[in-house]
Amino acid sequence: MSDAPTYRKIIHIDMDAFYASVEQMDNPALRGKPVAVGGSENRGVVSAASYEARKFGVRSAISGVLAKKYCPEIIFVRPRFDRYKEISNKIHEIFHDYTDLVEPLSLDEAYLDVTQNKKGNPSASLLAQEIRMRILNEVGLSASAGISINKFVAKIASDVNKPNGQKTVNPDEVEAFLEELPIRKFYGVGKVTTEKMYQLGIFTGTDLKSKTEEFLEKHFGKSGAFYYKVVRGIHNSEVKSDRITKSVAAEHTFDVNLSSEIFMLEQLDRIAISLEKRLKKHNISGKTVTLKIKYSDFTQQTRSKTLPYFISDKSLIFETVEELLYQERMRDSVRLLGISLSNLNTEEKKAVVVQLKFAF
What we know:
Structural class: alpha+beta
Radius of gyration: 22 Å
Strand order of the largest sheet: 5-6-1-7-8
Largest sheet: 5 strands, mixed
Number of strands: 13
Strand content: 15-25%
Helix content: 25-40%
């Protein structure tokens, strides 16, 4: 009888520049050129960038104006979320040929638990290679993969050999892999936390590992215990195939800033209609309505109201949003408005993956 510990075998699949790659696949004229999905040279925010654009520093979440400045030859393309969802569904069909334990994070990435798999193959690395090859041959896109004993390490590993590569971190390699890793590459450690860690002399996994749990909790609160464990390869989160939708949202970025509440209400009415369609399509309702406002200086504000009952009708959503809009005066002209519904009735139901469409 073996006393050797048993480990889960987790694969994290991450499509390479997914939205931009779909656009280049569908339009051969875009292949090999710097492409930004979303935004424009005058307005909007970049949703995704091709690898050709990334060489110039173009990244998701930067403004179209900045993208144009970084890369004057950039080609802006409107996002086509229906197409991305169609391609994503094909990729997920491939995933389910190997395991039903598939946890989507978004349209372009997912965790797969292949500890027990439909192919009876004990090698997670070979399975990841086969899955990536099938995606390339059957869909026409490249994917990268990370393979390890838990979701945290697999997620980090999938970024090591991008694009179109994979990285396996075996059980006996996990701690050394994390010790050598720059702290900014730890999944879940954002810019603000990275700067704080730098100030505390934490630059690598080794530095993080040298700190006591008490020290980390003192400086990072509840997250301190998480950092203490993950740098030691401890992350017990299971791959959950039925993720619960926590909120459903719709928003719109305007070509011209809005300065009148009347114009804002007209747009909010349209956004509420779009939100209602998504809610009813998946039989979802919620109690908390949130109005999102992004001003022309890019500062953002949210206003929320929780009702005593579940709603999904456009009329009730809009009525609540109107009340929130007039809660206080606008600070500046508005470039983006959004509505989200949370506190949903999905806690007792199997989740549905709702892809939110953002207009640019």
